[in-house]
């Protein structure tokens, strides 16, 4: 999870969503109240689940370690094949706009000629 969270694309998307979420909660008090209640509920469920799941995780620890290692290697390969994962969301949006714009200009020039 940490390896995925540290990808530039994922971390920048998280920052954008977090900022929008905080801004929405601040700007709309009723939505903020609902969000606060939902956050408390999720926190309670997470705490309760963690205490119940811990004995199972201890038993499965060697298997979990193998899965983590396998997933990490797969993610490394994915990062190699998709350099897009190392770009922030804003850069991807800008690059996409530029690409679409250049294609529209190319099409317009083709039609004009």
From TrEMBL:
Q: What keywords were assigned to this record?
A: Lipid droplet
Localization per Swiss-Prot or TrEMBL: Lipid droplet
Report the gene name: Plin3_2
InterPro entries in the cross-refs: Perilipin
Reply yes or no: does the keyword Disulfide bond apply: no
Q: Which GO biological-process labels does this protein carry?
A: lipid storage; positive regulation of triglyceride storage
Q: State the protein's name.
A: PLIN3 protein
Q: Which organism is it from?
A: Chionis minor
Which GO CC terms are listed, alphabetically? cytosol; lipid droplet
What family does the entry list?
A: Belongs to the perilipin family.
């Amino acid at each position: 999870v940490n390896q995925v969270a540290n990808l530039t694309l994922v971390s920048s998307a998280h920052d954008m969503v977090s900022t929008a979420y905080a801004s929405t909660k601040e700007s709309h008090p009723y939505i903020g109240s609902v969000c606060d209640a939902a956050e408390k509920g999720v926190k309670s469920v997470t705490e309760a689940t963690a205490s119940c799941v811990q004995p199972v995780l201890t038993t499965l620890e060697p298997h979990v370690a193998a899965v983590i290692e396998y997933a990490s290697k797969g993610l490394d390969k994915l990062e190699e094949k998709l350099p897009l994962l190392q770009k922030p969301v804003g850069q991807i949006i800008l690059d996409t706009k530029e690409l679409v714009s250049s294609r529209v200009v190319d099409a317009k020039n083709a039609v004009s000629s």
